[in-house]
Amino acid sequence: MTAFTVNGRDYDLDIDPETPLLWVLRDELRLTGTKFGCGIAQCGACTVMLDGMPRRSCVTPIGMIEGSEITTIEGMEGPEIAAVQSAWTAIDVPQCGWCQSGQIMSATALLQQVPKPSDEDINNAMAGNVCRCATYVRIRQAIHDAAKTLEG
Amino acid sequence: MSVQTTRRGFLAGGAGLMLALTLPLDRARAQAVISGPFAPNAFIRIGTDDLVTVMIKHIEMGQGPYTGLATLVAEELDADWSQMRAEGAPADDKLYANLAFGAQGTGGSTAMANSFMQMRKAGAAARAMLVGAAAAEWGVPAEEITVKAGVVAHAASGKSSGFGALSAAAASQPVPEDPPVKSAADFVLIGKDRPKLDTVAKTNGTAQFTMDVYRDGMLTVVVAHPPKFGATVTSFDDKAALAVKGVEMVRQISSGVAVYATNTYAALKGRDALAVQWDDSAAETRGSAEMFDAYVKAATEGGITVEEQGDMPDMAGAAKVLEAEYRFPYLAHAPMEPLDAVIEVKDGRAEMWFGSQFPTFDKPTVAKALGIAPENVAINVLLAGGSFGRRAQGSAHLAAEAGEVAKAAGRDGAFKLVWTREDDLKGGYYRPMTVHKFRAGIDADGKIIGWENTVANQSIMMGTPMEAMLKGGPDNTSYEGSTNLPYQFGARRIGWARMESPVSVLWWRSVGHTHTAYAVETFLDEVLEAAGKDPVQGRLDLLPPDATRERGVIEKVAEISGWAGPVRDGKGYGIAYTKSFNTYVAEVVEVEDRGGVPHVTRVWCAVDCGIAVNPNVIRAQMEGGIGYALGTALHNHITFAPGGEVEQSNFHDYPMLRIHEMPAVEVAIIASDADPTGVGEPGVPPLAPAMANAWRAVSGARQYQLPFGGAIS
Amino acid sequence: MRRLTIAIAAAFLAVPAFAQDLSGPDAFADIADETERSVALFDEMGKVLTHPRCLNCHPVTGGPTQGDDMHPHSPPVVRGDADFGAPGMNCSTCHGTANMTLTDGHGSIPGHEPWSLAPVSMGWQGKSLAEICAQIKDPERNGGKSLEQLYEHNAHDGLVGWGWDPGQGRAPAPGSQEIFGQLTRAWIDTGAACPAG
Questions:
Q1: B51, B403, B523, B698: which one has the fewest Cβ atoms less than 10 Å from its Cβ?
Q2: Strands laid side by side in the B151-154 sheet
Q3: What is the predicted pLDDT for the residue at C20?
Q4: What SS3 string covers C31-62?
Q5: DSSP string, B241-308
Q6: B616 and A CB contact within 8 Å
Q7: Binning pLDDT at 50, 70 and 90, where does residue B171 land?
């Protein structure tokens, strides 16, 4: 049995501890906002928060997260995620949309740690999130816009 | 364009609710389509809640048809944008055909072009019926009624209403045969920036894609495909696979061995535990180098003539003769959502949920696999996490595999077929590997007197159900963009050599233009340089006087990029122009030489796609097309080891463009009153040649093969 | 024509090209001169110190490398202020507390608690063994370690030990941590001499 919380709810699951968190979130908990893109931590589509820090769920065996708090895109709260989502919609970032949950999780983590990121900060934080539609111009802009909103 | 939008009722069924009856659930919609009478116009549903739902006949995979087609309806309906909704239309050739194909499907950047008048007529008809209903109810002349931003009003009487309250009465109004549509000057919504309807759901995790569908009792299925193209299963041992907790069964199907499990992880572990023996006797066993040798030989022999103009001069008499050979690798589309499909079979009927891009092929294929009639198959077309051509399958191989998986289970039930990234990159349906050979002659005045170009590659359409569309002719998707050039040469001859291999190929975002644009526009630069001409002026000089749209984008991109020749402040600048899918695009690329590696810093793009329905979407598609093309040019090739196995497997060895590699992009949209044309693909072709031309300028090197890093020689 | 080199390598299918044996201190017992013996011991330790399993996370500039060919890390990562990556994508975004074998069984994401880059002062990539030796002995550059603490580190530190348990698809450093510790002990006991630059 592995006990952890997801979006504030407690779970105690009898699942092979090697199972990647990604598939537990999707197949067992039906939290489908977290996406599968590569399975080897190359694309970032599966990014969640593990005890408040971004984490690729596809390479996170649930045996590793005993006692941890997981937050998925569905459970995100706070000024940073709100600013990011509203900046994202304002300039219409998504195209196909598959990678965007992961992009938004990484962008939110960045803004939580660096309120006013430079282009270089954005490159460093977001280089692990692939967007095959190449919405990168708008992702960069939206992060800057969200930072401005947060500045007040 | 004349489109029959109206026959008898606007509405489904005798339910009496009007243009409407919003069917809220996928299942309800699918059931209605399977069993019920059809509405002659199945595009618009207006609910009593004032919401206008447009059934979108084109798959939404990021290129914006949900928003674009809803905009067209809203424009003629005079709806308020906030009341508009979009839903994917189910598979139904009769109701939802692409007018460019005569069957339901999305591709060739046709969504907006073929829908432009159809959706406007649909909206205009609905508006007329709402007005008719209001006139009858209020006892006032219809001509005095106005509709604006979703409000139907009669000024003199002070009466007004939303759409919802009129919807029941409107349903019994006569359907106008050919309702007038607005002139462009009256457009309220068309031509304005607008965020896409699906954007909010794509920023909070609620957007539902195929992989997000879970049905009761559903099993997840992964298939072990042969490691070599053309190989088949000899035998397999599933003992270890069945021992994996959660694996329920293992079945052989025509594409390999399918593992069924109660969850994805178990299915993957089960597949990993399979031992499969493959029969390679009909398989492709050549490595890439060996294939290229064969292609070069065929291209050198000249192929069949697919375009000829003028009498080819004796090149011996030319002041200069240039020759070049280009090599392009196989490419994978690599949409972020790998292929997947959900199928549920019950009592001789099947319902599917997936990103079906060619429902017209998918539906009968599934029916055949299951041994049931096509009318007993319902396909719900879901949002797709990218496609770039990958889901537009003439072979309907994914639908076939899903159908076979369901059939082989030997019982009713729901099954989710999932391809992993490795399955995707090793799974074929690639952009065809291609070789181009060129020869051009220049006279003493720098005039191009002869232009010869032979293309060698596999056909995408021949040998598939799409071959019929070629009507016995060659497959022009193999060399489109080498032919029909706007440039005036003294004489030209274009050849095509068809290559064959068990390696499956498919259209890849901009199809033939993916390689022809590169070959033509870099070789042209080389010829212009030999003739002592500027890349921009040299191109303009080759255009005939009536090439106004070609000239328009080239001049515009030169203007916004501040074109001042190929080198400025130590940076290289290159231009390329392509007309693809009836859209004209020119791009200028700025390249820095960073330690022998090209780094693209800025891109300027001018696009003429006729009326710009939603400039925001057009800019997004140019930005995205540029990024897609750049990542590919820098990094990507699918290669075969001697023996025939694909050497790449995931994003670590088939790298995607990442944010730090993305240049700044400036897009200029040419004002036009021509009918709109597509934007999903046309941003792609000019990028790589413009980049190569810029790289030549800054580094002195010409790039005759792609990708820039790690091409095979 | 200029050659472009954009490294693309099979990170998860690394071939164990560096698998070699590591001799224990006894193998050097017949070197009479103590300093020479000390140098020889350090040369032997160098097989571990310069092995890709160790060097990949001892970069001098920039971020870590990967694989036996030591290509740039993918996805691209930077060192960051705490040798732990950038805000928004640090080491633990992907690397867990233990190696994680990928679902297809053909590779793994390496992991250990803790997991981070060696500090810049301990950057070894591109350095000679003599330079590394000087660096490793210098408390200014070795994290303030005495030689005794250095022994302790080499012989028992968990992250050092990861080099011999690097997970599926990765060749381990030569020998074992136990032998490496013995070599370090013997090297210190013989005066911790460095090879000539």
A1: B51
A2: B145-148, B151-154, B159-162
A3: 64
A4: CCCHHHHHHHHHHHHHHHHCCHHHHCCCCCCC
A5: HHTSTTEEEEEEETTEEEEEESSHHHHHHHHHH-EEEEE-TTS----HHHHHHHHHHHHHHT-EEEEE
A6: yes
A7: confident
The two structure tokens encoding residue B202 = 């794509």
Sign of the dihedral defined by the CA atoms of residues B386, B391, B397, B402, in that order: positive
User: How far, in Å, CA of B459 to CA of B466, rounded?
Assistant: 11
How confident is the prediction for chain A on average, in pLDDT? 97
- Return the closest-CA partner of residue A42 out of B315, B421, B139: B421
What size, in residues, is chain A?
152
Parallel, antiparallel, or unpaired for β B567-568 and B492-499? unpaired
* CB proximity B685 to C under 8 Å: no
As given in the structure block, the two tokens for residue A26 are 């999707």
The domain of C42 spans 23-189
Over the stretch C73-87, which tens digit does the pLDDT of each residue have?
A: 999 999 999 999 999
Q: What is the pLDDT of residue C10?
A: 35
C96 reaches A (C-beta below 8 A): yes
Question: What is the set of domains in chain B, with CATH numbers?
Answer: 26-186 (3.30.365.10), 210-281+339-418 (3.30.365.10), 288-331+429-699 (3.30.365.10)
CB B62 within 8 A of CB A95: yes
B106 touches chain A (CB under 8 A): no
> Residue C197: its pLDDT value, please?
77
- C104 within a domain of the structure (yes/no): yes
Share of chain B above pLDDT 90, in %: 89
- Which of A19, A51, A58, A124 is the best residue to mutate to test the C interface, defined by the most C CB atoms within 10 Å of its own CB? A124
CA distances in angstroms from C135 to A144, B502, B557, listed in the order given: 42, 57, 55
CB atoms within 10 A of CB A96: 29
Specify the amino acid at residue B233: V
pLDDT digits (tens, 9 = 90+) for A73-118: 999 999 999 999 999 999 999 999 999 999 999 999 999 999 999 9
The CA–CA distances, whole Å, from C45 to A127, B60, B79, C177, C187 equal: 36, 59, 77, 11, 9
Question: Structural domain tally of chain C?
Answer: 1
Higher pLDDT pick, B603 / B37: B603
pLDDT at B33: 32
Share of chain A above pLDDT 70, in %: 100
- For residue A37, what is the nearest residue in chain B, using CA coordinates? B336
Residues B699, B701, B704, B707, CA torsion sign: negative
Chain C positions with Cβ closer than 8 Å to B = 1-12, 74-76, 103-105
Q: Can you tell me the mean pLDDT for B79-103? A: 93
Residue pair B365/B404 in contact by the 8 Å Cβ criterion = no
- Three-state DSSP at B102 gives coil
Q: What are phi and psi of B87, to 5 degrees?
A: -140, 150
Domains of chain A listed by start with CATH number: 2-75 (3.10.20.30), 79-151 (1.10.150.120)
Alpha-carbon distance of B285 to B268, in angstroms, equals: 27
Percentage with pLDDT > 70 across chain B: 94
In a domain? residue C197: no
Average predicted confidence (pLDDT) for chain B: 92
Specify whether the CB–CB gap between B149 and B159 falls below 8 A. Answer: no
Instruction: Look at residue C19 and tell me whether its pLDDT is greater than 90.
Output: no
Average pLDDT over residues B270-284: 97
CA neighbor of B682 nearest in space, from B51, B85, B23, B110: B110
Q: Closest to C2 (Cβ–Cβ): which among B272, B635, B699?
A: B699
Residue B36's pLDDT band (cuts 50, 70, 90): very low
> CB distance from A38 to chain C under 8 Å?
no
CA distances (Å), C94 to each of A48, A57, A58, B258, C172, in order?
Answer: 11, 8, 9, 31, 21
For residues B110 and B73, what is the distance between their CA atoms, to the nearest angstrom? 17
> What phi, psi does B81 have (nearest 5°)?
-60, -30
